[in-house]
Structures are given as structure tokens and as C-alpha cells.
Description:
There is one protein chain. By secondary structure, this protein is mainly α. It has one domain (12-100). It is 63% helix and 4% strand. It is built from 5 helices and 2 strands. A two-stranded antiparallel ribbon has the order 1-2. The longest helix has 29 residues, at 72-100. The protein is globular, with a radius of gyration of 17 Å. The structure holds zinc ion. Zinc ion binds next to helix 4. The site of zinc ion has 6 residues, from helix 4.
Amino acid sequence: MNEKANSFIDFIGMKKDLNNHTEEIVIKTMKALLQEPEYNNICTCHQCLLDIAAYALNRLPAKYIADRKDDLGTKIAKFENEVNIDAVSVVKKAIEVVSNNPQH
Ligand SMILES: [Zn+2]
């Protein structure tokens, strides 16, 4: 591939089409957990939520999905089941760590 051809490739555009499905699972898990009474007093400011998500995402396997055609729905559901149990305990730990050491 020559340099000119390379300049037509939308490498920056790749980023928006690459989705780490683990992000969706973590956010969904956070949303569910933070509604529980035991987490009533947890700070849910933007910074703390990002810190909780980052903590959890750094400890769970990434699952990148390049497109959403074919039987991907089934694959996602299967992956979600496998990761879900882990996600709950990791997000619980993340909430505990961040709420004990908020960056503000
Ligand atoms: Zn906060």
C-alpha cells in the first residue's frame, strides 16, 4: 500500500465504529447497583461515575465488536451472561474503592 492510498483510509473514523461491549455492561451494571438502597449515599457526580467505570473497565476483559450484523446479537447475549457475574462484583468493588477515595 502506498502513502497516497493510506491517506484515504479513515483511521480516525474507526474509533467511533469500534465499540467495547464491556462498557455497555459496566454502565448497565452501575445503573442497576446505584439504585439499590445500600448505595444511597454514594456520590454520583460525573467524576465519581467515570472513576467507578474506569476502575471496573480496567479489571474486566474488553470485548470489541466491529459490526452488528449476522448472529452478533446471539454472541453478545452469550458474552453478556459470561461477563455479567464478574461485572457485578467488580463494579461493587469499584463503587467501594471510589466512594472511599473520591477525587474531590
Ligand atoms: Zn463525586
